[in-house]
Queue: 4 jobs
Job 1
Amino acid sequence: MTTSRPTCTRCGRTLTATASVARGYGRGCQAKIRAAALVADHKPAQVAKAMELVADGGIVSIRGRRVFAVVSTSGTGRYLTAPQACNCAAGRKGHTVCYHRVAAQLLAA
């Protein structure tokens, strides 16, 4: 008699951690699913700028996955950002989510 082992519903790997079994996804797949859901919530231009910021190393974690230092578009300034808020001009106005926050949300996912 063989016992069926729980597998990740995304990639099919065997799940061993209790939390992963309860979720149905492994940690890596869960992060990818969160990031994909996040991307769907924002405009494509914001996501593209956020991905470029991450790829260029323009965002650096300074307090775990909660607070990040971000270089401005011109490269002369620096902002502090988090997945919930940013102190750039667009972030202070609060009309839309700035791409710094999108980048922080991607890294925190």
Job 2
Amino acid sequence: MTPTADSCPYGLWVGFDHADHIYYEQNTSPLHQAAIILHEVSHILLGHPSDVADLAEMLPDVDPAKVRYWLSRHTGLTVPTTQELQAELFSTLILERATTTRSRSRRTG
């Protein structure tokens, strides 16, 4: 697959039998990277399944039979699925809580 602005995911989660791998955009701010990673982690924590056929197209060298889950976050103006909305909300709540907790500990520390 040739990467384009509309086809490349910001983040990608590939779950194998014994490990989960999260790939994320390198050319963005640290805050955006954290948001991307938390979005992918949220899919894992929420137990979202995925369409392994899409993985085979994007990563032809990865054996789809060994992959448990694959979820990605794409650029472009597409209508988000319920799972994408859930992951986005969950990751936003985690990031907000982490930021608030960190700010409080800096003030009291």
Job 3
Amino acid sequence: MEAELVALATAGATALVQQMVGDGWERARTRVAAFFAARSGGDAETVGAELEAARGELLRAEQGGDQEAAGEALTEARVEWRARMRRSLLADPEAAAELRRILAELAGPEAAAPQHVTTVNNTLTGGSHGIVLQVGTVNRMHTVHDTGGTGGGGTPDGPRP
């Protein structure tokens, strides 16, 4: 049961962070703030202010033009809100049904966040030697092409499949 709640918390945090930088933010903020307030005994305005602060950090990082910093900010926000959702769900497993309803609402066509797609294409040329490692955020598409040499994941006969 805990694994299911952790998966739901992960999905919830991912959807929430997507909404933070998307067009459906106001509705998402209202629904999620009410969800947390009902479980913490706090008020929705306080939770809403915390959500707004997290959103502000994401937008500043995104507007800064540094993709690495923006990716780190997204990851940090997902981790923070995933942990909060997980704790709420573990304390009140009945809340899972409400969180599923919220996710279904947020996934609706009128609330869908614009998809930001970043494609990175790398080309390795020359006689590079050793290991070539590309690291990135999981939700982005990356391709690596090895056009020669024996390093960078290729063999003398070409790149590995």
Job 4
Amino acid sequence: MIHVSSVILVAVFVDQLSIEQWHSAWIMKSLAGVLALGLFIGLFTADRKTRHVLRGPKA
């Protein structure tokens, strides 16, 4: 559920970019999406406390 929520958060974040007057929108939205997903992947894999939360309680 956390991963799905994170993907939805990235999609909403990227959709809110309004920069068409300065740069091509699809390029900037693609870059923002890739950056945000990369940061989430880094958080989910590198942070010890986040990995512990994602694993859930031990059985």
